[in-house]
Automatic annotation (TrEMBL):
Species annotation: Desmophyllum pertusum
Alphabetically ordered keywords of this record: Oxidoreductase
Domain called TauD/TfdA-like: residue spans: 83-214
UniProt keyword Oxidoreductase present: yes
GO molecular function annotations of the record: oxidoreductase activity
Descriptive protein name: TauD/TfdA-like domain-containing protein
Highest taxon of source: Eukaryota
SUPFAM superfamilies: Clavaminate synthase-like
InterPro entries from the UniProt entry: AlphaKG_dependent_hydroxylases, TauD-like_sf, TauD/TfdA-like
UniProt keyword annotation of Oxidoreductase present: yes
Amino acid sequence: MTSRVLTTFWRVSPGFKRPSRALSSITSIFETIPREELVTKFKSRLRDRPFLPGSTGGGFPEFLAEPRDSFPHGVRVHNRNQSSLAELTEKCMEYMEENIAHSPAILFRDLPAKTTEDFITIAKTSQMNRSYIGGTGYRTLLDEESGVATGTDDPPELTAEPHNEMSYIPNFPAKVFFFMLNEAADGCGGETPLVKNTELISKLDPDVLRKFEEKTDPICAIYA
């Protein structure tokens, strides 16, 4: 079975600053998920993967790396008070804002969300400016008000390599949300790899990085 992923975006002004606070336990409804529970049973092959640029070159990793202790930071949501999805979403947004500076990728599990309409509720409750204007991917907009769309309408055999979402526009998204509507069976794809840009930049050839930094074209600078 092919997975189906929905997505929406948050935009903020270019001067937005994220809070720099340590991991917080703002309520008792969040329980940290051990790294072992985030490791998938199936290893996703990268080397020689069809339609993945560079996968046939030397030095390409054979498999997708496993999650680390804090990347992504997974939490299980306990709904002891039988709160509504909107109420739980508000708590999740508070948790995210308090922790995102130290945990740039957060996975929320066990929310009572199973349908497209549920994800639309989550997106609307966030009350942020959402838009895919300027995006170049093939996606189907499912709800205009919330900005919820399919993750991609590309054929399932294609692989989208890691990228900075809409980094080519001046006011790019501050946050990207994904919602797994249909989970794929092991070996059928659907993975969403995460990359820390700071670590990626540290691995680039300094001469190549310097050439990007010297560019006056903002598009070149952003892609760097």
